[in-house]
Every structure is written in C-alpha cells, then in structure tokens.
Amino acid sequence: MNDHVASDKTIIGIGANAALVGGGLTIGLPVDDITAPPANAVHNIIIRNISFSGATDDMINVQMFSHHVWIDHNDFSNGDDGAVDIKRGSDFVTVSWNRFHDHDKTLLLSHDEDAGPQDTGRLRLTYHHNFFDGTYQRHPRVRFAEPVHVFNNYYRNNALYGVASTENAGVLVEGNYFESVAPRSTSATTRARRGAWWSDATCTSTRAPRKQPVPWSSPAPTTRTRWTTRQPSRPLCRRAREWARSATDLPLRARGHGQWPSHEEAPQARGGPLARPHSARPRRAGARLVPRPPSQAPRGRAHLVSRVGLPYHARP
In the predicted model, what is the mean pLDDT of the chain? Predict the structure, then answer.
C-alpha cells in the first residue's frame, strides 16, 4: 500500500541505509476521472536518498496533474509493478541520479493509449544520470509526452528494450551509454513520429550528416547508435565513439543511494562534450527548486529541452 504525499513536502532518507520496504509513495489526488488540472493538484515535491524495494504496487506513482516533482539519488529494486510511474496529466518532473536494478517495469510515462485527453500537452520530463542495471524494460516507456529529454544515463544488461516512444510522443535521447544490451536500445511503433538510427557511417559531423540516415525499421547498425524522434532529418549528432562515452565519467561526489558503489564499477573514460556543461555547474546559494517553463528557457541544443525539468543550477 502506498502513502500519499501532500504538496510542498520534501522526503529525504537520513544516512546510507534509509529504506522503504514493501510499500511506496503516491504523489497526486486519489481520483482518476478529470481531464483538467484541479486547483489543488499536488505540487512542489522532492524525494531523495531512499531505497525502495519489495513494493506490491508502484514504488513511486505520480498522477492526477501533479507538477514540479524532483526524484533524485534513490535506489529502486524488486517491485511487483512500476518503479517510477508518471501519468494522468502530471507535468514538470525530473528523475535524476537514481539506480534501478533487479526490476522489470522501470519507468512509465502515461499509462494507457486512451489517456490522450489527460496527457497531451503535459508530461514534460527530464531523465538524466540514472543507472539502469539489469532492469528489463521501460527506460522509459513514453506515450503522448513532449518534450521528454533522456540524457547521460547508463544502461547495462537491459534485456527487452531501452527507450520506447509511442502515441506521437517527442523524445530526445542523447549522451547515454549502453553496455551489454540488445543491438536496438530504443524502440518505436508506427503510432510514433518516424525516427532514425545513426552510426559512424551516417553521423559524420557534429552538425548535419553527410549521408542519409538508416530508417528505424532497418536492421540496427553494429556500432553504437543514437536515436531521436525530434528532427530526424537534421539530428544534433556526434560520432558514436564520442557521445557514447559521455555518461561514463559522471561525478560520484554525493553519498547515499542512487549512485554506483565505487568508481571502479563505472567505465573509466574521459567525460564527453555532453557531460561537462551540466556536471561542471555548482549549485548556486539560494537556488530555487522551481523549473523554468520551456518558453523561458534559453535557446540551445541541450538546454531547451532539459529545462523542462529541474534547472541545472539547482542540481546538487
């Protein structure tokens, strides 16, 4: 059974062994039949440094137009349903620096193909610097949401698929590292906007490719690839050997959950160009934990979508 979290709450586990076993947290009103944001929607929530395991339902469930939620530095494992499910019109959520392991249904974004009236135009999220260690599927599984930014995550031994984008979702996937996974680390169906696979043979520049992309329906190339449903005709691409390593030299300064146990378990490589701008920014004193709306975000390849979630200057 899940406990309900009210607005303006911060839940932080104290010490390295803070845990919630056999249950989870629900962020959102206990209703499901409205299609417009209510005045009392749950908002301004931070969840950090907790180990979730053994839940019979979702370990964290964000629903019913909840907004401005930050889920950071947690550990998720061995639950019966979703690890972090975000649905029913929720908005402006960041999922960062978490470790997911020994689990099946990892990250769900929109719960059903009939959820368009609640979800379209909402579900604006950022997933960054998460470690998916032996999880099976949904990294994340996205419907309707746009924009969604998935960057600098580490995927290892993921059996079924990485990122799935359907129901006209818009997902930007970049700067991630894939190790011991199936050749195709992202997937889509014909309901989604057409995407493309990129490899060294097709992505020859940091600006625009010199050759045509490989259609996503073709066999996956053998080299490491990057895929996005946003602007498939003009990808913001880098050579695979450059961008694929950018998530492997993440700073592990923080202590607690949601990090690799040691530096040795993370591949040792110099940080790529996508990792440095974000990890180099120190937290400014008195920084507000309130994301900027996309209309106020500065223009730029990485920043426009990323500021959907928590602004970089407010990261720890």
Answer: 69
Catalytic sites, residue numbers: 138
* Residue 305's CATH number: 2.160.20.10
Q: Please check whether residues 129 and 188 belong to one and the same domain.
A: yes
Q: Which of 189, 185, 179 is nearest to 199 (CA)?
A: 185
User: pLDDT value at position 54?
Assistant: 95
Length of the chain counted residue by residue: 316
Residues 71, 257: Cα–Cα separation, whole Å: 12
Please tell me whether residues 233 and 181 are part of one structural domain: no
Q: Provide mean pLDDT across the span 160-166.
A: 89
Q: Which amino acid, residue 98?
A: N
For 39, other C-beta atoms within 10 Å of its C-beta total 4
Sorted by sequence, the CB contacts under 8 Å of residue 133 that are 6+ apart come out as 99, 100, 101, 154, 156, 157
Strand-pair category, 99-101 with 60-62: unpaired
Rounded alpha-carbon distances, angstroms, from residue 299 to 66, 116, 207, 235, 295: 27, 28, 16, 16, 9
Residue numbers of the domain that contains 108: 2-193+245-314
The phi and psi torsions of 33 (rounded to 5 degrees) equal: -115, 20
Which tens digits make up the pLDDT trace of 61-87? 999 999 999 999 999 999 999 999 999
> Mean of the pLDDT values across residues 226-247?
34
* Residues 43 and 90 placed together within one structural domain of the fold: yes
State residue 56's pLDDT score.
93
Distance of alpha carbon 5 from alpha carbon 208, whole angstroms:
46
Looking at residue 305, its pLDDT comes to: 29
